[in-house]
Amino acid sequence: MGRDTLSDLLGAVRLRGAVFYYVSCWRDWATEAPPAREIAAAVMPGADQVMAFHMVARGSAWAAVSGDAPLRLAAGDIVVLPHGDAHVMSSAPGLAAERQQPEWVFANRDAPRPMPISFRDGIGVPTPDAPSEDADAVLVCGFLGCDLRPFNPLVTTLPRLLHLPAARAGGWMANVIDQAARESAERRAGGDAVLERLAEMMFVDTVRRYLEDLPADARGWLAGLRDRHVGRALALLHGTPAHAWTIDELGRQTGLSRSALHERFVQFLGQPPMHYLASWRIQLGSRLLRETRHTVAAIALEVGYESEAAFSRMFKRLVGVPPAAWRRQAQPAVPPTASATAASVSSGAHSSMKR
User: Fold this and answer.
1) Contact yes or no for 204/10 (Cβ under 8 A)
2) What's the whole-model pTM score?
3) Reduced to 3 states, what is the DSSP secondary structure of residue 295?
């Protein structure tokens, strides 16, 4: 595919990362992280979905989600919790873990990041300077945030625990982890910005490695992206969302009959192509509502609706509230005068095109 549909989606749902903890561990240790929804307001304000991640910079660790077998992590491994499940990180499976309380997270949300933490025989305490030179294990931990509303088909297709072994990551990811560890320990100027970008790079690479390893019978958005015909259809819909698409034209351009494309699209994504297009247009429109001062009528044309009324009806149907009300509720990601965003999310769409 010529178009990078995954990048389109990640940009539209505002993926962003932050590293919060630089963890040094000695001997036997274990800690339980609460569900991300309980601490989301403290660690990633304004994010619909919060995902915890852990990068093992040195030594080894175990990760466990309730109901699943513990997973051993070696140096260079990465684990992401896409659905924000409570989980245990430990030096060995089965160790009793004390849950990190949300109150502690909120109390320390304004502390300089990443916060150094030491675990010695199961006791974890924030320390002014984590002495990691002789630690048995060193972890760099943080959070990734993104939008779920109105439309994010990626998160639902990911497993509860997403593991990227060092052997699969390649040398460049080892360098990312090393750089994250150095930035966390040295706390240089600009370190927060560097760590945010590193976290986002880590997540994107983890997702595409997961995509490469999907079994042949996998279903979901990522599996559809990999499929020859569905992937082509997604690229077309993402490339020119404001085009007056019909199932017939989409079928011709993907090399399938309308009925075959409909069936294949539903098989992978659980919804017909035109329903997907409507959701994608509303996602693009919601971003413009949040990030620009464009009128609702202008946004409607930008994303492919022939009138403000048609856009507003579909927006309320999918989101639950009219566009103007949603705009008032949403927190702007950037100053509202940043109209340049419109050009990037419209992906070459022309406002004069009709739905």
Assistant:
1) yes
2) 0.83
3) coil
